[in-house]
């Protein structure tokens, strides 16, 4: 976790540097408009700069700072090291039990299609949304009870 924390702090610094460079570059690129007065709004001069990119990069910086801070606090609270941080670790040390998955199941594809239909219903026509939700419920029930019937029954 120490490595992850350092990586996120490094990314935070990179994003901050990128934010500053992007903003300065944007100001320089629009310097001709700003130097001649730009758009006059009363007594103040409005800078003709696109601030959406700077704001987005600033929020990416803040999010990476939040992640770095959180991972650092978790590392301090747990006090343990991950197998990735230990030089003497084996491959099996970092191999957790992920659960039981059905490799030949078609239900995840049906579930994804149902979610797609529901989202398409929100975007295109509201009448499609209940159809997507109904297929979604059938797919969830089918996926949960897949091992009770048919080829994979136990």
Give me the secondary-structure topology.
Blueprint: H1 2-29, H2 31-35, E1 39-41, E2 44-46, H3 52-78, H4 107-123, H5 128-144
Antiparallel strand pairs: 1-2
Helix pairs in contact: 1-3, 4-5
Briefly note the structural class of the backbone. Answer: mainly alpha
Share in β-strands:
under 5%
Strand order of the largest sheet: 1-2
Question: What is the β-strand count?
Answer: 2
Distance between the termini: 40 Å
Unreliable residue runs: none
The helical percent reads: 55-70%
How many separate helices? 5
Order of helices and strands: HHEEHHH
Shape: flat
| Radius of gyration, taken over Cα atoms and rounded to an integer in Å | 26 Å
As for the number of domains, it is: 2
Summarize the biggest pleated sheet: 2 strands, antiparallel
The chain-level mean pLDDT equals 84
Q: What attributes characterize this protein structure?
A:
mainly alpha, 2 domains, flat
What does this structure look like?
The chain contains five helices and two strands. The protein is mainly α. The chain folds into two domains: 2-89; 107-152. A two-stranded antiparallel ribbon has the order 1-2. Helix 1 (2-29) runs antiparallel to helix 3 (52-78) and helix 4 packs antiparallel against helix 5 (128-144). It is flat and about 70 Å long.
């Amino acid at each position: 976790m120490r490595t992850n924390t350092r990586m996120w702090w490094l990314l935070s610094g990179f994003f901050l540097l990128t934010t500053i460079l992007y903003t300065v570059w944007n100001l320089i690129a629009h310097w001709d408009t700003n130097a001649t007065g730009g758009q006059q709004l009363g007594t103040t001069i409005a800078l003709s700069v696109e601030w959406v990119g700077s704001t987005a990069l600033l929020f990416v910086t803040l999010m990476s700072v939040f992640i770095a801070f959180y991972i650092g606090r978790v590392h301090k609270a747990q006090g343990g090291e991950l197998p990735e941080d230990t030089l003497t670790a084996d491959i099996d040390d970092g191999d957790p039990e992920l659960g039981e998955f059905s490799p030949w199941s078609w239900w995840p594809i049906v579930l994804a299609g149902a979610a797609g239909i529901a989202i398409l219903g929100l975007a295109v026509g509201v009448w499609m949304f209940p159809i997507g939700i109904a297929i979604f419920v059938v797919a969830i029930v089918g996926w949960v009870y897949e091992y009770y019937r048919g080829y994979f029954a136990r």
